[in-house]
Design brief:
The complex is a heterodimer of chains A (365) and B (285). Chain A has 365 residues and is α+β, with helices and mostly antiparallel strands. Chain A has helices spanning 48-56, 98-108, 113-126, 142-154, 172-189, 200-206, 224-229, 234-239, and strands at 8-19, 22-33, 37-41, 63-68, 71-72, 84-86, 160-164, 192-197, 209-214, 217-222, 244-252, 258-262, 265-269, 281-286, 291-294, 301-312, 315-322, 327-333, 346-351, 357-359. The longest helix of chain B has 33 residues, at 59-91. Classes of the chains: A alpha+beta (365), B mainly alpha (285). The complex binds adenosine-5'-triphosphate (ATP) and magnesium ion (MG). Residues 19, 22, 24, 42, 44-50, 198 of chain A line the site of adenosine-5'-triphosphate.
Chain lengths: 365, 285
């Protein structure tokens, strides 16, 4: 996709990993362009860490080829791959000072003492922690430790940095601060980053491209916008953002116009990107922010009554129970003088047909 | 160190009651005989330090003391050099196999030290397996004396010291976070650098605990030097035996025993200092 314009930093060709009976990763093809910020997003056990560790060389693939920076790295030992990695638990050497920790990869590269001094100083400057150089890691806060482990990674300028949920152990505020810091470093240094998270907000904030994983496979990949506005599967739609999903069967008119017959009525919808035959089951996705509460019976609308309304600062979320027992979420901007909808009120949830999206039904099980 | 003592929740009386049996046993088998020994070393018809003054000027005692420290430190060093690689290998094994290997490490404890000593003679003695083999390949000219001298004492001792060394180093190695090694590998470090810069320094608490236990155990060795050493390899415990059973000089024997106690105490304290902030509890897994 994005990789076609610039040369690839990492190229996975049919890479799979089995642990005995467990298929941790099915044949995966993935290409990461130089300088790109790619996020692996997915639920627990979907194979994110496995994919990262395969690239890092900590595990070897059961089949397939891994190319890093144009070089076949499938069986190359970890210490010859020339990449950087930031761990969730920081993995700082407890017996070394902050300075010694950051100097370690430079000593491996046999830099001169003076050069090490200079580079470590610069790296500490970059993360604004110059004053802790002589402390041991255990004398630092979690956020500081994670910044040190970042510094230890960028100090030797690896072409590729892998991060496995690096912010997982930090509280929300610190996490957001660190997200911006990592983004800033990425922009300043132009390093290729492969970042693992199971937090969709983090993925949306940080990435050039999101690779959504599900059960050891790539479910969908694309820019944050693509994944949010043009999910291709029910799984993608549900994992990123919240969604209203109405099941039904597809009806295709003589002019090619699509509609879905559902328990709540017949709704027009744009033709899906991947064709679904007439009479086949499908799901209509409408994002909550594309729905409004009305009294008028527009064609694309569903009757129901308000079960609950919650205020989320700038927006209000209404939960509407429909006639068939299913429930819809409607999200509206919270404006002063907003007509108050009350619990139990009979309403209609309406949307523009062009905001609907037909998806193939979720596979059973 | 990490575990907080839940005993602090107990009332002082309950704590005292729980400690009473142990205190009674310790009083009976440790404090009383020790007190008696100290008393005997100081009181011989009248109260004096004569026994100690004599000891300090006795060339026999000083020579035996030097032997003792040389043998204890030598044995400990050999045990460390042999034991560290074993611990390293054990730490790399999957848990089930490690348990099987650990049983083998503990095997020497299943036989009496007497039997083991004679078995060592059968292997290392002048007519032992090794010398028979050496004699065979050299046409009868080669015979390396390995028993009834210092080599014999140290061979006999490490047989007993090794499990302690291996277990305490293994504890440290198992506590080592594997992700540190992985991190070092991603940074490009090779196995040798990882060993010197990460594995070894982080296993130091275990090494020091092992050394401490080994030195303490070997300073008081009695049977091994008696069975496998030569006349030149008498250790302090053998000297005590010599005074009590050969010359029947109980005052000298007691003074020697007390001197040994004090010297080992000092050595332990010294090693404890070297260990720095890492407490004994921090050494275990
Ligand atoms: N060493 C292993 N032996 C057997 N199965 C494994 C091993 N490592 C991972 N797996 C399995 O492979 C699958 C993928 O695991 P992986 O660690 O890649 O998931 P993940 O996406 O990183 O999840 P999380 O978000 O929880 O970290 C899981 O089903 C896991 O149980
Ligand atoms: Mg993981």
């Amino acid at each position: 996709m994005t990789a076609s314009s610039t040369p690839a930093m990492v190229e996975l060709q049919g890479v799979a990993k089995r642990y005995g009976e467990v298929n941790a990763l099915h044949r995966v093809d993935l290409s990461i362009a130089k300088g790109e910020f790619v996020t692996l997003l997915g639920p627990s056990g979907s194979g994110k860490t496995t994919l990262l560790n395969l690239i890092a060389g900590m595990i070897t693939p059961s089949s397939g080829r891994i190319v890093i920076d144009g070089r076949d790295a499938t069986t190359l030992p970890t210490n010859k791959r020339g990449l950087g990695m930031v761990f969730q638990n920081y993995a700082l050497m407890p017996h070394m000072t902050v300075f010694e920790n950051i100097a370690f990869p430079l000593e491996v590269r046999r830099l001169s003492k003076a050069e090490i001094q200079r580079k470590v100083g610069e790296a500490l400057e970059l993360i604004q922690l110059g004053h802790v150089a002589n402390r041991k890691p255990r004398e630092l806060s979690g956020g500081q430790q994670q910044r040190i482990s970042l510094a230890r990674c960028i100090v030797y300028n690896p072409a590729l940095i892998l991060m496995d949920e690096p912010l997982g152990a930090l509280d929300k505020k610190l996490r957001e601060q660190m997200q911006l810091e990592i983004k800033r470093l990425h922009a300043e240094l132009g390093i290729t980053m492969l970042y693992v998270t199971h937090d969709q907000d983090e993925a949306l904030t940080m990435s050039d491209r999101i690779v959504l994983m599900n059960g050891g496979r790539i479910e969908q990949q694309g820019t944050p916008d693509t994944l949010y506005f043009r999910p291709e599967t029910v799984f993608s739609a549900e994992f990123i953002g919240s969604s209203n999903l109405i099941p039904g069967t597809v009806e295709i008119g003589a002019d090619g116009s699509h509609a879905l017959n559902t328990a709540l009525g017949r709704f027009d919808a744009p033709a899906p990107e991947r064709a679904i035959k007439a009479g086949e089951p499908a799901v209509l996705l409408v994002r909550p922010e594309n729905m409004t509460l009305t009294d008028a019976a527009t064609p694309a609308s569903v009757a129901g009554h308000i079960e609950d309304s919650i205020l989320l600062g700038g927006v209000v979320r209404h939960f509407v129970r429909c006639a068939d027992g299913s429930s819809l979420i409607i999200q509206e901007l919270n404006q002063p003088g907003r007509s108050g909808a009350h619990r139990g009120d009979a309403v209609r949830a309406a949307w523009q047909p062009q905001h609907g999206r037909l998806l193939p039904p979720a596979p059973a099980g | 160190m990490a575990q907080s003592s839940s005993a602090s929740d107990l009332s002082p009386w309950t704590a005292l009651l729980l400690l009473a049996p142990l205190t009674a046993v310790m009083l009976l088998i440790l404090i009383y005989p020790l007190g008696l020994t100290v008393w005997t070393s100081l009181y011989n018809g009248r109260f004096s330090f004569d026994a100690y003054v004599e000891l300090a000027s006795s060339t026999l005692f000083l020579r035996v003391l030097r032997n003792t420290f040389e043998i204890a430190i030598g044995g400990t060093l050999v045990s460390l050099i042999v034991g560290y690689p074993v611990a390293l290998h054990l730490a790399a094994q999957p848990p089930r196999r490690r348990t099987a290997y650990l049983i083998m490490v503990m095997l020497p404890f299943w036989t009496s030290i007497l039997v083991k000593s004679f078995a060592l003679v059968a292997v290392f003695g002048n007519q032992g397996l090794i010398n028979q083999f050496l004699g065979f390949v050299s046409g009868g000219t080669l015979n390396v004396p390995m028993m009834f001298n210092r080599v014999g004492v140290i061979l006999g001792m490490i047989n007993f010291l090794l499990p302690f060394m291996i277990l305490s180093i293994l504890g440290s190695l198992l506590a080592l976070d594997r992700r540190l090694i992985l991190a070092a590998e991603t940074m490009g470090a090779g196995p040798l650098r990882i060993f010197w810069k990460i594995t070894l320094p982080l296993s130091l608490p275990g090494v020091l605990a092992g050394v401490l236990i080994n030195v303490t155990l070997s300073i008081g060795m009695y049977i091994t030097p008696a069975l496998l050493g030569g006349r030149q390899d008498m250790m302090v415990a053998n000297l005590v035996d010599f005074y009590t059973r050969q010359t029947l000089d109980w005052t000298a024997a007691s003074a020697t025993a007390v001197a040994l106690l004090i010297l080992s105490g000092l050595l332990v304290a010294l090693l404890g200092k070297v260990r720095g902030s890492a407490g004994l509890a921090g050494a275990g897994a």
